[in-house]
Specification:
By secondary structure, the chain is an alpha/beta fold. The protein has 7 helices and 7 strands, in the order αβαβαβαββαββαα. The strands form 2 sheets. Strands 2-1-3-6-7 form a 5-stranded mixed beta sheet. It has a two-stranded antiparallel sheet with strand order 4-5. The mean pLDDT is 96. The structure holds zinc ion. Zinc ion binds next to loops.
């Protein structure tokens, strides 16, 4: 058994031993909100946003981008499970700012091993063969941080399956301080629309 596997299972036993009455939690998030954020290991939404089990939905992907699949989760989040407010939270020093579609397509075409990042950028050091399949994926990388938050909030706001009365807040989490900084232009873009305008 790998070390990681053993550690995870041991930690889980400890967690389950003091699970208490969390087994009685309802499926819909008690605080009726959802967070879309990056998978970056330095971000712990439960801690930085004060969540306990059962409180909120947390949807994560590389970059915290409003991908089709993130929108699928958000739509399920309100339509079936009743969330009424959403956050889009990107962060400083995001790995998605370090490459673009061309970069990752080139790296994966060269080999499937882990690439290295140095002062001249990403470099593939693995043995081939790689695959050209990466050509068919939009990797949703980030060029300008705040603009990516605005464009993700805008995409969700304008999506035909998203009701206008759900406010969407745009934030950037600072990995050096743990603080959430608002992207005012994103929150403005994500403002709830008046009911009469929605109809
Ligand atoms: Zn990130």
């Amino acid at each position: 058994m790998s070390n990681v596997l053993r550690e995870v299972l041991t930690a889980n036993q400890k967690y389950a031993a003091s699970f208490g009455d969390k087994g009685k939690l309802a499926m819909p998030p008690a605080r009726r909100f959802a967070i879309l954020t990056c998978m970056d290991a330095r971000l712990d939404p439960a801690k930085f946003a004060g969540l306990a089990e059962g409180d909120a939905h947390v949807i994560r992907n590389a970059g915290g981008r409003a991908s089709d699949d993130a929108i699928r989760s958000l739509v399920i989040s309100y339509k079936l499970l009743g969330t009424r407010e959403w956050f889009v939270i990107h962060h400083t020093d995001c790995g998605m700012e370090t490459f673009n579609n061309d970069t990752i397509r080139r790296l994966l075409a060269s080999s499937l091993e882990t690439a290295t990042l140095d002062s001249s950028g990403w470099r593939d050091v693995g043995r081939g063969p790689g695959s050209t399949e990466a050509e068919f994926i939009d990797w949703l990388t980030i060029n300008v941080r705040a603009e990516a938050v605005v464009s993700d909030v805008r995409r969700i706001r304008n999506h035909p399956l998203v009701p206008g009365d759900i406010p969407i807040y745009g934030y950037i989490y600072d990995v050096r301080t743990g603080q959430l900084d608002e992207v005012a232009a994103a929150t403005k873009e994500g403002r709830a629309r008046q009911a009469e305008l929605v109809r």
